[in-house]
From TrEMBL:
This is Small ribosomal subunit protein uS15c. Keywords: Chloroplast, Plastid, Ribonucleoprotein, Ribosomal protein. The keyword Ribosomal protein applies. One of its GO terms (biological process) is translation. The lineage of its organism: Eukaryota, Viridiplantae, Streptophyta, Embryophyta, Tracheophyta. It comes from Adenostoma fasciculatum (Chamise).
Length: 90
């Protein structure tokens, strides 16, 4: 998978520099979401993992909305790099 290798490259570059940055946390959550999604395709009745996935999705959504308010350019770049959809604005 090309996406996972790209995420691991980003993770390796910023491994010791900015673990607390919003961008790094979003990349980390995206990696965990993709891993859990592939797990749930095999184990459809794993309800605890489904709950965990929903919690991670909510955390990532809140971080993405925060980033879009603070730095719109960085938000757009990150969305394009991770190949995820842009959040709906209210």
């Amino acid at each position: 998978m090309v996406k996972n290798s790209f995420i691991s490259v980003i993770s390796q570059e910023e491994k010791y520099e900015n673990r607390g940055s919003v961008e790094f946390q979003i990349v980390s959550f995206t990696n965990r979401i993709r891993r859990l999604t592939s797990h749930l395709q095999l184990h459809k009745k794993d309800y605890l993992s489904q709950r965990g996935l929903r919690k991670i999705l909510g955390k990532r959504q809140r971080l993405l909305s925060y980033l879009s308010k603070k730095n719109r350019i960085c938000y757009k770049e990150l969305i394009n790099q991770l190949d995820i959809r842009e959040s709906k604005t209210r």
